[in-house]
Specification:
DNA polymerase, domain 1, mainly alpha, 2 domains, three-stranded antiparallel beta sheet, hpI Integrase, Chain A, 13 helices, 302 residues, 4% strand
Length: 302
């Protein structure tokens, strides 16, 4: 029987991520899948009996295979991040003698500017949805909340009725790493949320509805593909750009705030970013816009 490393050796690590770090189910699945893929690769290519026998060469070999399969630098970096966390855990608990990740360099990512929608197109987007039916009003409100709050798709899907603080005019959002943050809401949005709740009650009557703020026409919790397809269908009516996802509305929220003079640190807190470096990418959009204005307006630009 050939030697193989055992994925079950990682169970204590997975428990640590779930119960101590309190990572979301989506994040837990990503970590598990990354480590499962690495384990399968090592067991298929090498005779390695224990995690302690792995070296940086095994990991680099896996990276080469990922590149050959067409996996992009961003995805490879995420997979390496999963391995890095695993080996740090192993070292902390003396399950391995050394950390092979120390000698592994992650591939560089060429930074692309986030795609956004101009303000006038956003206004056109809101004009597209005129009906006050439950489904249409819900869809418009979801799109407005994406743009007005900058929240992520997963964050909006997890909203519950009690997350809306009407007296303080704000919404409580559960972000990455189960970190809570509050985002202010305009009076007009508060009014629309109250109207949506009335429409929801009229639409479903006495039928059981999931406990989430936004539900499907069948009263069930929204799922990622549904939200993506709904937003994309409406964005397709006002733009032909390649990216037409909920995240484009989040990017537009941040960019338009920055253009209007909002402080970067404030935008960081509203977006739920841990580090300011993640927010700074929006400054590049503003710089590019300034360059274009300069080139078109300055008499010496031609």
């Amino acid at each position: 029987m050939s030697k193989q490393i055992n994925i079950e050796d990682c169970n204590s690590f997975f428990n640590y991520l779930e119960f101590e770090k309190r990572y979301s189910n989506h994040t837990l699945i990503s970590y598990r899948n990354d480590i499962l893929q690495f384990t399968a690769f090592c067991n298929g290519m090498y005779e390695v009996e224990h995690w302690n026998d792995l070296t940086h060469k095994h990991i680099r070999s896996w990276m080469v295979e990922l590149v050959d399969k067409g996996i992009g630098p961003k995805s490879i970096r995420r997979k390496l991040s999963s391995l890095r966390a695993l080996f740090l855990f192993f070292r902390k608990h003396d399950l391995v003698q050394s950390n092979p990740m120390i000698k592994v360099v992650a591939p560089k990512i060429s930074k692309s500017l986030p795609e956004t929608i101009t303000r006038d197109r956003v206004e056109k987007l809101f004009d597209v949805i005129k009906s006050d039916s439950f489904a249409d009003f819900r869809n418009r409100l979801i799109i407005e909340l994406f743009y007005i709050t900058g929240m992520r798709r997963a964050e909006l899907m997890m909203l519950k009725d009690e997350n809306i603080d009407y007296s303080n005019k704000q919404v409580k959002v559960l972000g990455k790493g189960n970190k809570e943050r509050t985002i202010p809401l305009f009076d007009v949005v508060i009014v629309k949320i109250k109207k949506y709740l009335r429409l929801r009650e009229e639409y479903f009557g006495d039928n059981t509805v999931d406990t989430y703020l936004f539900v499907t026409n069948k009263g069930k919790k929204l799922y990622p593909k549904w939200v993506y397809n709904m937003v994309k269908s409406y964005l397709s009516t006002i733009t032909t750009q390649n990216k037409r996802s909920p995240h484009v509305l989040r990017h537009s929220f941040a960019t338009h705030l920055l253009d209007a003079g909002a402080e970067l640190t404030a935008i960081k807190d509203l977006l739920g970013h841990v580090n300011l470096s993640a927010t700074q990418i929006y400054t590049h959009n503003s710089i590019e816009k300034l360059k274009n204005v300069y080139k078109s307006a300055h008499p010496k630009s031609v």
